[in-house]
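pasting for ref
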Amino acid sequence: MVPFKLENRKDAEVSGSRGALTASSSASLPVLKQLAIVDVAGEKILGTPELADPRGLAFDSKGRLYAISGKKVLRFTLNGAELGKGEEVIGALEDPQQLTVRRGRKDLCHLISGSLTR
């Protein structure tokens, strides 16, 4: 377990995902408008990059991070705790909350409480 201190209990709303092929994990911190990128093996937080209206997170089979940001899904290739520029994968969603990525020959993104399944 990696300790993460929050100053305010209301900031504790989190959604997380663990990369199957990586030693990284991530959690969205919507109230803080940040993600927490965690090195699971090293048991430490690598960083907390900012992301507008972060919600559900998932990793694909290539270790890329999918993140709901407001009404769109962005895809990032993590470099440590740096997000870089996200590629918009799906946009103009009604109210997406969570997502999963089905791993296989072709990764498929599934949204929960959104208006599209891809």
